Amino acid sequence: MELSRLRRWLSRPGPWGFFFILPWLVGFLIFTAGPMASSFWISLHIYDLHQMDYVGGENYRRLLFKDPIFWKSVRVTLTYACFSVPLGIILSLGLAVLLNQKVRGQRLFRTFFYMPSLVPAVASALLWSWVFNADNGILNQGLSVFGLPPIKWLQDQHWALFAFVLMSLWSSGGPRMVIFLAGLQAVPDSYMEAAMLDGATAWQRFRSVTLPLLSPVMFFNLVMGVIGSFQVFTNAYVMTGGGPNNATKFFALYLFQNAFEYFKLGKGSAMAWMLFGTLIVITTVQFRLAMRWVYYEGEAR
Amino acid sequence: MKRRFPTTSAIVFLLLVSLALVFVIPLMWTVSGALKSAQEFAKEPDRLVPRHIVFENFGKAWRALPFAIFVGNTVFISVVATFGQVISSSLVAFGFSRFKFWGRDALFGVLIGTMMLPSQVTMIPVFLIWRDLHAIDTFIPLIVPSFFGSAFSVFLVRQFFLGIPRELDEAATIDGASHLRFWWSVLLPISGPALATVGVFAFFANWDSFEGPLIYLNSPEKYTLSVGLRMFQDTDGTTAFEQVMAASLIHILPTIIIFFCAQRYFLKGIAMTGLGGR
To answer: Do B124 and A272 touch (CB under 8 A)?
Structure first.
């Protein structure tokens, strides 16, 4: 009797579906949901891996009002995001549009643009420390061809962050371009032909047909780009360690240093929650604004 | 159909060539730097084609650090973690794509949401979990989480599964195959492209990973390539760039080779998940 009831229960799809997603669900609870909650709990303490003292909002208060390096890291990260995300999107959209012109060797070009993103992060950081090397790096050699003076890219606090933006264009241009290219290739030829028959110029076709159809892809690149730009760690850790004069003290780097070098785990957790909160606010705002400019096909506007 | 002026095509082509050069030159210089002798590198670091091609830097770099161990560790971690991720993600994707159950869509929404969660938020407590389990300075924290699926892979495989006709499920059920059996002997064998895409991405992520090994591995004999490569900078004040370049190439080469073998899956995966934002 009991056995037949069990068998009947198992013949329904529901329990099986739940059973199959169990690995993810368990992992989510252990490695994501649980840690998120306890991260907030830790952020209310001073914790050095041995002793844990409850201090309430003290970590947040100190960060906001008594830690100039915290604010420096906020400024560095925001400045970097403001430059690297828009420039990266413009560059990769440009590359995709050029590649979409049915040029000879399209696949070869696509591979070339994509290759930098295949370079592992640490190797790319080492490679670029050489490109940016003040004495005999190739960037300064290139500048000298045009008679320009050498720049101490990574040692000069006015240039270091710009160097990171350049690097990000190099390594993230390819994947974003692939996404844009897929979007461009999905634009139906008939739309273009109709626009041409109406006498639209190339720019008008791009502005009024291609861009609106591409806006969902653009939105995706924007949201993921912002999230990524808030998490720069490896390059800063390997190339500059946050210097010179904290000019490349990215938020994620300062968070890591607090947690795993100074063993201020409460402070690190407080920073993690601030990062999380900020990203939620920014992403929500982006989704709200998206209703105004992102166009979804088949949707009445 | 389209009228096109030859000059426009020429300009587009020239523009692409020069942009491609900018993208590739840093890599070409890495290769050329690695193939120069120390003397030549010191004299003409910017010369693109070495006067004499030498391979001594690879040997020097290999001997300067326990490189064979780093490579072995990285391969081991990447292969096991990739295996775990492919198996678990396809199982979870099966559950999400083929069954209706209470809360399914909400849970899937949560899964998608985790893709946007910065790892920094969970980093510290997860470290504490592994510390309490005495797993610091082992590969366990770098491998085990992969066996619980990853949001990105689940999403991608689920998309693929959704495109497989339901008639197949019905046929299998009539033949008396269990769900698990259907997943293993019908669904997985025809999902090669999706699994390859997920596998390649998982392998890259593990091969490339830096922050995890940096946090969890303390003894040099456990280091992965990412963490080990960085020792080149610290060993002495003057960095021998030609050796660093040779060592970096050892780190870069497998990813480039895999990319060329699996390019199709790769680009499709990016385009697919990218457009997932729709």
So the answer is: yes
Helix, strand, coil tally for chain B in percent (to 5): 75, 0, 25
CB-based contact (8 Å) between B77 and chain A?
no
- Chain A, residues 243-262, CB within 8 A of chain B, namely 252, 255-256, 259-260
pLDDT band at A32 (very low <50, low <70, confident <90, very high): very high
User: Which residues in chain B are contacts of A88 at CB distance < 8 A?
Assistant: none
Q: Which of B20, B215, B274 sits opposite A112 (nearest CB)?
A: B20
User: Where along chain B do its domains lie?
Assistant: 1-54, 61-275
The tens-digit pLDDT sequence of chain B (278 residues) is 455 567 778 888 899 999 999 899 889 888 888 888 888 877 777 777 788 888 888 888 888 788 889 999 999 999 999 999 999 999 999 999 988 888 899 999 999 999 888 899 999 999 999 999 999 999 999 999 999 999 989 998 998 898 888 888 888 878 888 888 899 988 999 888 889 889 988 999 999 999 999 999 999 999 999 999 888 765 555 567 788 888 889 899 999 998 888 887 777 777 666 533 32
State the DSSP string of A230-284. Answer: TT--HHHHHHTTT-STTTT--HHHHHHIIIIIS--HHHHHHHHHHHHHHHHHHHH
Enter the tokens of residue B68: 């064979």
Q: Tokens 């990574």 identify what position? A: A154
Angle between helices A265-293 and A34-43 (to 10 degrees): 120
Domain locations in chain A as residue ranges: 62-124+165-293
The model's pLDDT over A65-77, given as tens digits with 9 standing for 90+, comes to 999 999 999 999 9
Domain A62-124+165-293, architecture per CATH: Orthogonal Bundle (1.10)
User: B259 to chain A: which residues are within 8 Å by CB?
Assistant: 114-115, 118
Q: How far is B271 from chain A (nearest CA, A)?
A: 5
Q: Is A23 on the interface with B (CB under 8 A)?
A: yes
The ipTM of this complex is: 0.88
Instruction: Find the residue in B nearest to A132 (Cα).
Output: B26
Q: Does B278 touch chain A (CB under 8 A)?
A: yes
Nearest CA in chain B to A20: B95
Contact present, B149 and B91 (Cβ < 8 Å): yes
* Closest alpha carbon to A103 in B260, B20, B2, B16: B16
Strand, coil or helix: what is A200? coil
Q: Which of 1.10.3720.10, 1.20.1250.20, 1.10.3080.10, 3.40.1390.10 would CATH assign to domain B61-275?
A: 1.10.3720.10
Q: What gap in Å lies between CA B220 and CA B152, rounded to an integer?
A: 31
